[in-house]
């Protein structure tokens, strides 16, 4: 077995015949990406970071948080499903630890509105997502489905109560369901629905695959504060230190988690979100943790941007970053077009240059988080 | 890099310090399992199958199926979320292909009622699930979230229509929410709630972690036939041949998929489910594909078994297997207590002897599916 593996690695020939078609395409596209946006990286690493076999020390899944609550019996007992307890507010987490994961802090990725952890995985056009890329760059990666979403489940009690007539329809939560049209404008794929930006980085030919990722958002049913924030903070503690990353709806969740309990949180990464007004005390608290904010392109170029106003979000986050710095914190805002990186959509982690952007984030982690905390983490 | 990996593999020393606590426990428990139930296997493989680094050729996720439908605007346009198209009936699939995955058929695992693909992953007490174990036994593994569940999303239209008053509450689907009490009895953890079977294989000390996996089941909103069946058949075609495995609610889904399109399906594995009445033509069709059915223990030992009647399910499946055999098919029913394997719950893939049961399935695949189709699949 080990001999066979060594021969495989030595000859570096990966048999492809049993890899599904989509995956074969992944390799090809990933290689092309490595040859364009990530050329320097690819050369430095001998072009193998994306294509060599992936070696994991461990992987798995678990839950953080969750409370018991009593669920009334449905009318008539409905086939034996009587009253009883259920668990709600738990957060599902899936992780992978690479072979050299002991050298780096874990990165926790939390998706945005109307999406699941699928956000970070294989892109709609079949390229490698940030989840695997970060693992291949030696980071333990933890993907969390927000509470009330996807594998974290949601609380069905009120739905069945309305169905049974024991609660009025007005008690149903406002389920956010983003149509293709809303996604096109909020995610900034083009100026009007069906017309992409000529320089757009989103793989628009595969937009139908993105639409399949978009699932109902039941956050309106959650208590306050959002249990996902508490669970993210608890996960960071459990990992004995972690970097939290959010996107869009969850873009400020790392900060919200840190305001509840900063003890496990070593870095805050926020991708494209509104930055709320904070008190001086809150800013002072957040200023103890290195912060990165990233925004893409075309913030003001969508004709009817629906519920989003990204230009205003950028302005708000510029003010937030300025305040953190004034409070003595290490905060950076990467506004990509200003850095010469054009055409990025709201779905930065799925754009054609997604690995180039990942490299920016990894570089920021190395210089702003790990170079600072390395001593404290007691690595040998 | 490759040199480092070779040294790592050669010395077989896995640094543990950065592996999270739960995982460290996984290794320990897994090693204990290997030393008890799977002793012969562990000896044969030098005890390394569970603990050596996991080498993957590829991994990722994608969707199968999905159709567009028009969603009416919510009242008042609700913050820019107007009318538009959404995608429904898509099935989320997550996969891993191990380094020697080209030697074996892919295995597609589909979870049961009120659960997600979490079913097959890390067990509630932190041991290795079937997903990773099958990969470590050289099988490409595909986990599918059923349509209308978890990362596959669901159709929110009717919920928002009832909330808006444009549809009556009676149009809401019956969301199945299994309470802890229902799970305890249906999954056969003990004769009455809170009292486990003395010989029970389920890790009952971690039952709260199982309850967190239990999420609302919206299958009642699905069209007929269930789109998951069609998507499973399509996935098998896309993979150019696959073995389908279902459990409980989805236990007969492999057969339902095969009745729609058997062309990609090489094996049918059904874990603990009711077997429906079939016509002679249906039996004849299914008899062309090797079939394995598995049932655990204590089928008739739960005082109030709620909506399930496992003893009747076994009887029905015995009849099904007999009919398939009479039609010339290769079908086998593994009723575990009859084979001397005692105490298994309904959650066979999470029971303490889960890897022993996985070995039974892998052995069945090797002798009943792969030895037959090896030639036809053109492996070199």
What keyword list fits this structure?
10 strands, 380 residues, 16% strand, disordered C terminus, homodimer, disordered N terminus, alpha/beta, two-stranded antiparallel ribbon, globular
Report the β-strand fraction of chain A as a percent range: 15-25%
Q: Summarize the main sheet of chain A.
A: 8 strands, mixed
What's the gyration radius of chain A in Å?
22 Å
Oligomer: homodimer
Which chains make the largest contact?
A-B, 106 and 105 residues
Q: Low-confidence parts of chain A lasting 5 or more residues at pLDDT below 50? A: 1-40, 42-46, 375-380
Mean pLDDT across all amino acids of chain A: 87
**Terminal residue distance of chain A:** 31 Å
How many extended strands of chain A? 10
Biggest β-sheet: strands ordered side by side in the sheet of chain A: 1-4-6-5-7-8-9-10
Please describe what this structure looks like.
With 380 residues, chain A is an alpha/beta fold. Chain A contains 12 helices and 10 strands. Chain A has helices at 2-11, 21-35, 39-44, 130-136, 157-164, 180-186, 207-213, 227-238, 253-260, 280-286, 310-326, 354-377; strands spanning 54-64, 67-71, 84-88, 91-98, 107-110, 141-145, 242-247, 265-271, 291-295, 331-335. In chain A, the strands form 2 sheets. The first copy, chain A, has an 8-stranded mixed beta sheet with strand order 1-4-6-5-7-8-9-10, sandwiched between helices. In chain A, strands 2-3 form a two-stranded antiparallel ribbon. In chain A, helix 8 (227-238) packs across helix 9. The longest helix of chain A has 24 residues, at 354-377. The first copy, chain A, is globular and about 60 Å long.
């Amino acid at each position: 077995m080990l001999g066979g593996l060594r021969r495989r690695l030595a000859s570096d020939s990966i048999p492809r015949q049993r890899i599904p078609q989509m995956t074969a395409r992944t390799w090809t596209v990933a290689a092309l990406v490595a040859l364009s946006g990530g050329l320097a990286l690819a050369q430095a690493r001998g072009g193998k970071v994306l294509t060599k076999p992936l070696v994991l020390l461990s992987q798995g899944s678990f839950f953080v948080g969750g409370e018991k609550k009593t669920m009334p019996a449905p009318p008539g007992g409905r086939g034996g499903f009587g009253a009883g307890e259920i668990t709600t507010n738990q957060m599902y987490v899936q992780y992978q630890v690479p072979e050299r994961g002991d050298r780096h802090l874990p990165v926790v990725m939390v998706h945005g509105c109307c999406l699941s952890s699928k956000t970070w995985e294989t892109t709609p056009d079949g390229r490698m997502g940030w989840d695997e890329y970060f693992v291949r760059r030696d980071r333990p990666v933890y993907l969390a489905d927000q509470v009330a979403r996807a594998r974290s489940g949601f609380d069905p009690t009120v739905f069945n109560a309305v169905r049974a007539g024991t609660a009025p329809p007005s008690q149903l939560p406002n389920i956010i369901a983003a149509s293709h049209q809303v996604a096109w404008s909020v995610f900034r794929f083009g100026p009007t629905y069906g017309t992409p930006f000529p320089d757009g980085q989103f793989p628009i030919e595969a937009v139908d695959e993105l639409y399949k990722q978009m699932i109902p958002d039941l956050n309106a049913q959650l208590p306050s504060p959002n249990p996902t924030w508490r669970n993210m903070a608890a996960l960071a503690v459990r990992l004995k230190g972690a970097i939290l990353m959010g996107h869009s709806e969850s873009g400020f969740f790392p900060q919200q988690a840190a305001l509840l309990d900063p003890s496990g949180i070593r870095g805050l990464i926020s991708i494209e979100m509104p930055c709320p007004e904070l008190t001086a005390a809150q800013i002072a608290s957040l200023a103890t943790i290195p912060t990165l904010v990233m925004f893409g392109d075309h913030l003001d170029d969508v004709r009817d941007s629906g519920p989003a106003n990204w230009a205003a979000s950028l302005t708000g986050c510029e003010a937030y970053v300025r305040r953190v710095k004034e409070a003595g914190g290490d905060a950076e805002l990467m506004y990509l077009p200003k850095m010469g990186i054009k055409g990025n959509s709201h779905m930065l982690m799925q754009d054609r240059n997604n690995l180039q952007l990942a490299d920016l984030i990894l570089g920021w982690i190395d210089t702003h988080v790990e170079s600072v905390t390395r001593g404290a983490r007691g690595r040998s």
